[in-house]
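Incident review: delayed structure delivery

Summary: a single-chain prediction request sat in the queue longer than the usual turnaround. Root cause was a stuck worker, restarted by the on-call engineer. No data loss occurred. The affected request and its eventual output are reproduced below so the record is complete for anyone auditing the incident later.

Affected input:
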Amino acid sequence: MPGRDVKIVVVGDSCSGKTSLITTIVSHSFQERVPSVVPPVTIFGANKVGSTVIVDTSSKPDDQNDVDNEIDTADVICLVYDIRNDDNETLTNWMKRITNISQVPVILVGSKCDLEFISNKESITDLVDVYNQIEYVFECSARYKKNIETLFLYAQGSVLYPMHTVWDRQGNCFSEEAINVFTRLYQLHKKSNSDILSNEEFLDFLKINYNLTESIKTIKRNIRRECVRGVVNEGITLRGFITFHEMMMNQNTSDCLESLWKVFRRYGYNDQLFLCESYYTSTVSEYIELDNAAEDFLLRRFDLYDSNNSGYLDDQEMENYFQIYPYGKNPFTSYGYPYCCSYIEEVGISKIAYIHLWKMFLHMDPASMLKCLSYIGFQNDTGLTIRSAYKIIESPEKRSVFNGIVIGSNECGKSTFCRKLFAENSSDTCNSLYYVGNTPTNKIVILQEENYLRDNIDNFEEGL
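Output delivered after worker restart:
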């Protein structure tokens, strides 16, 4: 992420050596006598960042509120300890303090490693196992400039390419958020309704994102060694797709993280592995409706997940459809799906009703709908921005989606009326439904033009 500023805050007990580490990286020489605290140091244009600010902190009791404020505004924290005093309790107290204030990456730094002393690596390992925020552990010597530059390069890298949001060190596996991202990427690159990412599709993904030129046979053979169920003759399973990336992590963690984050950001993700708001946010305040590009994309998605070519998406197919969405949640359930549209039990939702549903979604909650559209791959599929997904309707007479409010006393037939209004054929019955959502939608004809009507089914008092 070129141009990004990084703030490194260095904390630790008195005489831990934190100030000597900073003066050495700045002056490129060791100083026998250093002040208790040095002012913030700025390094410009290092390691693909705009500027790096290194902040020293005081160990005086009266200054601890200031230290907490620096921790709160840090991008990464270097926790320095003297390897001769690597007391687990002291470091644990520091980590508790840091994690109560901030969730940024932490680098553990054992200083004065030039002294003849055997550090207690077991206690450090125990601490790393408990706190996933700890991304790297270094032993450094300011006197001999050992690992000093490497330490600060890795500190910068932990901001640009954070590990703790990607990798669960305790479980030695990818985090749940990373699994969600890989699931989305896997689904985005499938061009058929098969459950498998074909050999050609997988190779395309690798060439686009990692510039890999290995043969598919070699790659699949390596995956099979780690996960027998990760490959099939036709291609790669989701498990195999994730296993491939696990192998990358185990081979070279730091290089893999940089490669992974470049891919994640190419697909719109932020440091917390959610889509950046700028990727899908629309600032338009006017009334908007689906444009042709979005409708064509949604129709292609329907065909992709209509595995039996029935012209309907059943419950399992809809579940597969939104596997690409965060945590596999179907966003339509918030609006009463499946009973907010023309839905046939054990058959599913037709293509027409499916488009109606998306039009209703945009009408009711434009921001959430555009976010959903981005998650299921609109920009990646079309190569367009989210602005291409909608058109601005400047005058009311050009609208095709309208609100309709049906009011009346209890049991007067409001729900039956609305259900019949958007039933796909006259033989559909309402008696079989145990629940009717409060926002049914379907296409009707007004003045020989097709329009979409969304009905709010409320009781009489709420309607008024």
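Verification: The chain has a mean pLDDT of 82.
Action items: add queue-age alerting; document worker restart procedure.
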